[in-house]
Amino acid sequence: MPRTPGDDASPSGEWLNERGNVLLARAQSVPVHERWAILAEIDDLLAKARRGASGEVLAATLRRALVLRLLTNPDDESVASLLDELEATARAHELPLYEIHHYALRGRFAIRWALQSDALVAAARGLAIMAEPLDPPEGTAPAAWGKKVACALLTLSGTLSALGTYELAEETLDNAERHIAADDVHQRTVLTINRLCLMLDWGLRLERAGFAEQSAERFAASERLARTAEELWGGSMFAEDAAGKAADEVGAIAVAFALADPNVSHVDRLLRLREVVREPGELIQLTVALARCFADPGTGIALITDLQREFRGSTESRLLRLTLTWEHSRLFAVQEGIDPADNPVYQHAIAMEEHLWGVRQSVIDTIRARVEHERLARVHGTVTRQALQDPLTGLANRRGLAERMRAAALAPGDPAVIVAVLDLDGFKEVNDRLSHMVGDTVLRAVADTLRGAVRADDLVARYGGDEFVVVLPGTGTEQARAALERTVRAVAALPKAVGHGVTLSAGLTRLRPGEPAEETLRRADATMYVAKHQGGNRVAVG
Length: 542
Fold this sequence. Notes:
CATH topology of the domain at 398-541: Alpha-Beta Plaits
Strand order of the largest sheet: 2-3-1-4-5
Structural class: alpha+beta
Low-confidence stretches: none
Largest sheet: 5 strands, mixed
CATH class of the domain at 398-541: Alpha Beta
CATH architecture of the domain at 398-541: 2-Layer Sandwich
CATH superfamily of the domain at 398-541: Reverse transcriptase/Diguanylate cyclase domain
Mean pLDDT: 86
């Protein structure tokens, strides 16, 4: 079991991930008012991850922080900066699955803000990454890798469903299912609920478009999925009580049962869930299901009218809000004993849906075409990146370093950039005593440690041999010294079997405006030798 950190200890990456997963699962099965405390704890985990966790742990924690905001407070001012940080972290640490999470979440927030074009582009970029071969990092167990791939695909499917591109969402869920282990009850539960939500959205949309038979098929499928979710629920991380019913906790499951057989027996449960749910799409579905369960259409009309009033002027869940208009006009016709087709509001809703249904196919076609465009762009970007990348460690090479330092030197005003040269102590002995192959393994381990110890927008480059350079923009000398001292300690703490006893000597200096990169590196290199002459395994400032 991962160690629980004490007050004087930094939590391990394993503990941060396990705790984050527990919190995220809990947040999805509690009322919205209880999510605020969970969000605060997730933000605390994020602060800890920023202080020294690996790039992957930081990216995972950023993802959880964004998912919790989507569930709890999607208008939070920090969303934009968190999305940017997740993107930068995923790219800096070459984590394509977290790039997918980033694009999927960016798309979900764009839909929330009625930026459909932005959401479409984000979804296409996520699908483009999945079109590439995604090989697990060395040493990653196949089951663990499959779990991570499935998680990214599940996130992406939600965005595709919210765009109304249900066929693409279903394809993505099918792909996710192929990566889920048969004994992973929690992820199978998540997949089942995601499929259920997709079928409900799709069924309501088909119903509005006049495809009654296809709509009924989706509602029947959603009921079957709801029963499967009930069977899996007790073994998932969602259930605090294994005897509890999923339909009492998850609005979509309760809706599926109610739409399959609308009657008064569902009313109490739906009313209870409606009081604690604030996510617009789920709230709309609960209200529609509730309206159909009352014998008196007037009660359903009143519920829908109240919700329409609440959403007046809102830009979110436009497709599902059309369901409210359609349902209101249908119930009004039942109440008045007239044909719904004679209701002008109903006719308007149908005409609007017919238009949107036609647009929907063009959106699917646009996304498919955009995926190929984005895939080719990524291939081109990969070729360009490889020209700037050290093949052994994956860090920037001398050319990449030169381009970054040139850009920093040309920045207007005082660039406030720290440049550090780092050299391994004792590395020659590793090569001479154990072989160059072992030396290469040490270099890769040190490179991973350096990359994980600095910020996402800092540059780490391999300058040659066992010498590295770190460029830290927008930071002061003391902040940079503290960051590099953490890095030195992290390398010294590498297990003997990995680091073979090597340590780091680091020399840092400040980039002077307009100064040639060679001169800055010369000064940093001279300072690094000061650290060497003082015994190594330390940072010197020049």
